UniProtKB/TrEMBL annotation:
It comes from Durusdinium trenchii. Its EC number is 3.2.1.143. Pfam families: PARG_cat_C, PARG_cat_N. Belongs to the poly(ADP-ribose) glycohydrolase family. It is an enzyme of class 3 (hydrolase). This is poly(ADP-ribose) glycohydrolase. Residues 65-162 form the PARG helical domain. Keywords: Hydrolase.
Amino acid sequence: MASLFPEDFFLTRWPHISQGLDLVGRCSDAGALRASLQAISDDSNFHAARHGKPDFEAVLDDIPESEHFFATLLPKMVQLVQDAPKRFSSKCVPLLVQGIAEHVFLTYEEVATLLAMAFFGLLPNNASISPLYFPKDGCAFPPNTEKLRCFLSYFEDITSDSSAIFTTPSTASGGMRVTRALLGADTTTLQELETNTCRLCQVIPHDLRTPISQSSALLHVDFANARVGGGIFLNAPGATAQEEITFATHPELCIATVLCDVLRDDEALLIQGARHFCRHAGFLDTFSFTGKVHPSEPDFKNAAVQVVIDAKMYDGGGIGRPYRYDYKLQVEDAARDIYKALCGFQAASLQPELGRSCATGNWGCGAFGGSAAVKLFIQWIAASLAGLQTLEYYPWDDRVIFQFLVDAAALVAEATVGQLCRALRRAAELQSELENEVQRYEEDGAEFLRVVLRELHSGTGR
């Protein structure tokens, strides 16, 4: 089993790190902090230079929390890191690597200690939060600074009254569990699924502009990157989408970023026990930290389990925007994402205590360039095959998807996975036959969904 800490880490490396941490805790500005961390960390971000000068922006000197951070919070975070040998010198912290179905359980104290080590770039696997507070010169993008403020708020809460925070568990076991699920090789195609007689599960549409986080379902889909957490530790444009915002407002989720290898196509994660520490507003370039969630508030003890699944990328690498609306391409290419979603949903369904209802939405339809209509059906098929009873669907601002689900409710009550797959194929073929390219690529999906509904109606004999 691969371990986060090498066997001799706390015997050979830690004395030097511990001595240097004493200096870190006495720093009063960003420049001094960077110089102190250079002496004890291999994090390349602390050593970067351009034209012979240190290449970073002193974000920590400019945020509203700056004075408090250096005077009060920084020494407390250093003390949290100094406790690492006590917590981990005799405990194996497994890395969740590709191809191995494994899980790790950590107490909240252990999670906090590892995240504090990541903050200072002291983890042996080089997982580091440093790009958020030492971005390269010219790269201090405001939304990412707001992520930093979320982390500082978390560390403030964790170190201010540990007895209150650590004795308010969101799970019966008082900590976090991260599970890497592996479905194994599969050769099933969408065409083969056309004969599948499994009944479709129920899909319940929720009001527009209602976030998934408000769902009472225990399972919530994380619109993930293959590298879990996506750009949560990065200071780059676009690094505040759904996954990054969820991880920033529930910072304990980031333990999965620290411990997990990149997901393969046949892998997913379940993350249980992360609590809701931070409130926010906005999305992407309007994201902002708006305040703390107090442990006494109902939504602090967040019972939701994150089902971490990454969709196929279509708009990356210059593939181009029209593919978002090429239904024939995305339907024919759907097998990978059906399998990915099935991996996550099936892993969740094997734990009966998590229930059989999952909240999701337009997965893989932002930067990844997926069609919202096709991704709806992919998740519907996978959830049905996994044995879930209900998908709670949050279309955000997609009125077309919302109306389709309202219109289709009665029709699909007796429909099967095979009938939906046949309807999808037929609708995609008809869409590709449109002569007008604007109709084919630029419409809102309504025509495609109407054809799916019509084909389902025909296929179910109604």
